[in-house]
Amino acid sequence: MTMSNQPTNEFLIGLISELRKQPAETAWLEFKHNNANPEDIGEYISALANMAAIAGKANGYAVWGIEDITHRVIGTSFRPSKEKKGNEDLFNWLVRLLTPKVYFQFYELEYEGHPVVLLEVPRAPGRPVQFQGIEFIRIGSYRKKLKDQPQIEKELWQVFDTTPFEETFAKEHMDPAAVLSLLDYPAYFDLLAQPLPENRSRILERLEADRMIANDGAGAWNITSLGGILFAKDLDSFRPLARKAVRVVIYSGKNRFKTIREQSSRKGYAAGFTDLIEFINSLVPRNEVIGQALRKELPMYPELAIRELVANAIIHQDFAITGAGPMIEIFSDRMEITNPGIPLIHTDRFLDSPPRSRNEALASFMRRINVCEERGSGVDKVVQLTEYFQLPAPLFEVPLDSTRIVLFAHRSLSEMDKADRTRACYLHACLRFVERDPMTNSSLRERFSISGENLSMATRIIKDAMASNLVKPFDPDQGRKYARYVPFWA
Predict the structure, then answer these.
(1) Domain topology for 413-490
(2) Residue 16: what are its φ and ψ, rounded to 5°?
(3) I want to staple 420 with a disulfide (CB 3.0 to 4.6 A). Which of 301, 330, 398, 416 is the partner?
(4) Does this model's pTM top 0.85?
């Protein structure tokens, strides 16, 4: 898809020259003359993306205007910017029929006096790319359906299983100056509390040791996706990563009808994390007094809770889902933090399950710079904070291919509905269980600031939670007076 910061004409001419040096068409490279059939192009994109993954390439390519056997420049009449499928632009039609979305790009240029077109297709991102529901590959110069080639299908899935996102390349074959112009390397050393080396070679050496960059074996450098996503000066400079920028949207009311402001954090996650959190906190509504725990003019949501949840959204997202990144939406009554990818553990077990991450290298580095904790997801800390500040319990949702956590603005107990109360009761029981101190009527009254004379109100909430199969008695034979309760899974 079209992104800003397009490569220069000089770069594209050099790339085509390198592609022409290939001894023959490869599984990830195809030369064509004038074939503008939309269905063929869609199948090319699927096949090139899948075969680039198998070959360990960052991209696959098709070039129109180059003879496929001799690699002689012959020019082409194909103009993708002018082509249509029915009444729809070719580009939009192709995007709509590809699953998952891959950010391919057509480049129209003049090469050695002839018009040529270069199609650049990123490698398949964690699962095979389909066109119109079918996965394609290339064997020699022939397109085949992946399902008819079980050995290649097995090989492709092995690649996805063994090649983490962080080890793929966001930029390839760059000189040292270009690498350092794209990465905020001073932030790398600053966040690790280390002095900035005095010469460029030592800087590159340190970045390579942390897998931010990799030597390409020919005297140039590749920037890994880990290096780009953490320390990009501008994520738009890395087309595979541009849509992974964190978006922040603030609305005027309780729905998405009217947007007051929208902004994306263009820096890499590590380099820009502090600024991102400060920006979010500047947009969060402020309240004067909300119960005993709060003083005047404090944010509606605890800053530490926001920090934990934004870090979680960054770290646990599924990078194989292209076209979407973490998003923070601020409404008048709540904040929703969403990331691509369903959680690796059930939402009911967020508080007690051992930490699991799709992106271990990313998570590890963010722990080293104290953005997130080593021991877990931080959700227990978020629940603790919402209890302390007398807020409704957070809500964990799994909408289509994503994970969402909702923080709610303050509501009194009388303003909470039954679902709010039972959810809060369940999370309170989870929190007490991981602290080895089961929930009691007294602890729940403290959580809700229920006075002693309203003991029956806490009892009713516990009964509702038990009826919803969210909590159960710690001891089935316990008496009511000193009853203790645990989560249903305990």
Answers:
(1) Arc Repressor Mutant, subunit A (1.10.10)
(2) -60, -40
(3) 416
(4) no
> What CA–CA distance (Å, rounded) separates 97 from 118?
20
pLDDT digits (tens, 9 = 90+) for 171-223: 888 899 999 999 999 999 999 999 999 899 999 999 999 999 998 777 789 99
pLDDT, tens digit, 9 for 90 and up, residues 448-484: 999 877 788 999 999 999 999 999 999 887 777 789 9
Domain 9-163 belongs in CATH node 3.30.950: yes
